[in-house]
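F.,

This is the one I mentioned.
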């Protein structure tokens, strides 16, 4: 059994990575080695492009007059801007929530699976049968469920060696992707 007790202090970089992985968990389950879209870069760039196209459409209407096609483009770019803004505000809100978390967390790896307890309101269990793989990224280690019904458990990357040693020593047949 491996017990990891840690403080729930998330850095900005860890929070961004956790948010990006959480938002794209379905993609991760299907393609474990695939790279992730960084929503904290993608959303502002997409909003800037949509805003630029809205301005372009307005200028086109002022210069040449409008027709159905220009007004349709204006509507599409305006709608796109609003959707992307909502996505960005959601991921940013989730990041702020992660950054505001505090307290102690206990994660226990045993022969049955992984237990997570934040000593407040969350006590989670992910069995090894329900685990697809362990993915190690630059900021965190993720224990990923086989389907969307399970929970994903993440730890700071500093615990990687201890977790991988436990998995290897106990012959737990879980793939580790670095």
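My design for it:
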């Amino acid at each position: 059994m491996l017990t990891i007790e840690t403080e729930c202090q998330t850095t900005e970089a860890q929070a961004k990575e956790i948010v990006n992985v959480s938002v794209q968990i379905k993609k991760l389950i299907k393609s474990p080695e695939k790279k992730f879209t960084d929503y904290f870069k993608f959303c502002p760039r997409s909003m800037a492009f949509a805003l630029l196209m809205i301005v372009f459409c307005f200028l086109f209407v002022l210069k040449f007059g409008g027709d159905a096609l220009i007004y349709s483009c204006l509507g599409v770019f305006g709608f796109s801007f609003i959707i992307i803004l909502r996505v960005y505000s959601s991921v940013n809100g989730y990041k702020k929530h992660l950054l505001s978390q505090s307290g102690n967390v206990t994660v226990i790896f045993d022969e049955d699976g992984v237990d997570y307890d934040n000593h407040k309101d969350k006590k989670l269990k992910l069995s090894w049968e329900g685990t697809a793989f362990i993915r190690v990224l630059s900021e965190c280690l993720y224990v990923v469920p086989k389907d969307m019904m399970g929970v994903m458990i993440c730890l700071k990357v500093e615990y990687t060696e201890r977790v991988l040693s436990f998995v290897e020593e106990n012959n737990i047949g879980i793939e580790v992707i670095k």
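The longest strand covers residues 2-7.

Talk soon.
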